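Example 3.2
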Amino acid sequence: MELLLLSNGKTTEHPGLLGWARERVRTLLARKQVKRILLIPYAVIRSDWDARAFELSESLGVKAISIHQFDDPVDAIQRADAIFISGGNTWRLNQLLHEYGLVVPIQRAVRERGVPYVGWSAGCNVATPSIRTTNDMPVCSAAVLPALGLFPLQINPHYLDAGISGHMGETRDERLAEFCAINPSEHVVALREASLLQISGDTIEYWSARGEGFKIFKHGEASQEFMDAAPLAKLTPFTPRI
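Structure, written as tokens:
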């Protein structure tokens, strides 16, 4: 498999969509000889889907076309050179992936044909077994359906452990601890802004444009912070890249 799972799409210090990870994305596309990107923008609610595809094309220098432009979305997946799934609302995204019958076609494209998968924010969430660790509100009446399950651990994108003055609700750490208490056999990988996991074949790599680490949450244990993907090798079928 070829996966790039990014916490977010934009940063203030790097212009353009995926600008902070542009070179890594371009390197993957060049290695896989991708001529055209199939963009799945179902998570985008308040912006134009074609505009998102154009923005992606401009940033990466590779033509991107939104899946809504195709009469048959399943056929579009089956013919795709690369699948990119945008950020936005994870609940809406996962709902439409199921309604349009795209879950299995995406799984087969990535696992059997080696089609690169790049997902940020909501697109990162749906690459995991479920969307239960998204930060998004359930804006639609959607059941908690399984997600794509391309990556075996839950991910919490946009992870933030900074305190907010005057905020009296639960912190992100407390919310993730609640998830682990209800689901004691599961781990959660918390990705800060401008950080990613890259899976290529049987290797996994962690990278942060800001030089920050990620955290792993597990019930009954204090969360731990790491700077490389080696600890994930114990929790996944992957072998870390040295």
